[in-house]
Amino acid sequence: MSPAALPRPLEVDAIAFDLDGTLVDSAPDIQQALNSALASEHLAPYDLQQVVSWIGDGPDALIDQALTQAGIVNSSMALPRRLRAAYDRAALQQPFTHGTVFHGIPQALRQLQADWPLVVVTNKPTALAHAVLQAAGLQGFFRSVHGADSREQRKPAPYLLQAAGQVLGVVPARLLMVGDSAADLGAAAAADCPVAFARWGYGKPGAITAHPRAHPLDCPSALPALLASRPRRTGSVT
Fold first, then answer.
1. Global pTM?
2. Domain 9-25+99-228 bears CATH identifier 3.90.105.10
3. Could you read off the pLDDT of 220-237 as tens digits, one per residue?
4. Catalytic one among 13, 18, 180, 184?
5. What is the rounded distance in angstroms from the CA atom of residue 48 to the CA atom of residue 27?
6. Rg for the chain, CA atoms, rounded
7. Intra-chain end-to-end CA distance of the chain, in Å
8. C-alpha pair distances (Å), 152 with each of 13, 28, 107, 118, 160
9. Is 218 labeled as catalytic in the residue annotation?
10. Domain residue spans in the chain?
11. Most buried residue, 121, 128, 168, 213, by most Cβ within 10 Å?
């Protein structure tokens, strides 16, 4: 990579994390909630590998993918609405029963929390995101949680990052987005936030091209190490 193409230095005042595929491996719980919803409509289940390939755009997109794969297209909105209601019930009942926190995440968050305010920015609905974080033992690390409670708010739209910045009093250029998907990188680009790409997550390696200055991370411990080498601006958020 030429010097001109290197990512810009990570000098930030706060950090926003994606949830699924970045903080937690929640795919088994997402699969269970989806298959429970499908079973309520007498539709066939999907295996874990297939569900993983659909994670990142929120429950509505997940359901749309499942219906398309089943050959159900141009259906009335009644079926997706019923499936979404069933999905939400199943997911809230067991938000994080089969998933795991990625190795190294608690240690990285503990180290980062000492110097930067942390938030979650996710395409999960806010209530479900809180439930997952609580069940995973991660809720206490974060100042706020910003979920996509409507289709319009979903990443790669910049809305959630902008909302997080407003809550923290941090301008987008000083709010680091950490995520594993093209949606995360696209949202960061749309909001003009710096971004770090979590290679340990569900995203395809080529997703990093969604942001021309993304910092690739091979493991959670790489983020504190990278930030520790960058000077923080004085007078930043406390």
1. 0.91
2. no
3. 999 988 886 555 554 445
4. 18
5. 7
6. 18
7. 36
8. 27, 26, 34, 24, 10
9. no
10. 9-25+99-228, 27-93
11. 121
On the 0-12 / 13-18 / 19+ scale of CB atoms within 10 A, 212 is exposed
CATH class of the 27-93 domain in this structure: mainly alpha
CA nearest neighbour of 143 among 173, 123, 164: 164
Residue holding tokens 């503990």? 110
Cα separation, 138 vs 174, in Å, equals 23
Q: What is the Cα–Cα distance from 142 to 63, expressed in whole angstroms?
A: 29
N residues, the chain: 238
DSSP notation for the chain: --GGGSPPP---SEEEE-SBTTTEE-HHHHHHHHHHHHHHTT-----HHHHHTTTTS-HHHHHHHHHHHTT--S--THHHHHHHHHHHHHHHHSTTSS-EEPTTHHHHHHHHHTTS-EEEEESS-HHHHHHHHHHHT-GGG-SEEEE--SGGG-TTSSHHHHHHHHHHT--GGGEEEEESSHHHHHHHHHHT--EEEETTSSS-GGGGGGSTT-EEESSTTHHHHHHHTSPPPTT---
The structure tokens 């995973």 sit at 136
Question: What are 127's two structure tokens?
Answer: 């209530």
Q: Are 30 and 127 in contact (CB under 8 A)?
A: no
What is the band of 208 on the pLDDT scale with cuts at 50, 70, 90? confident
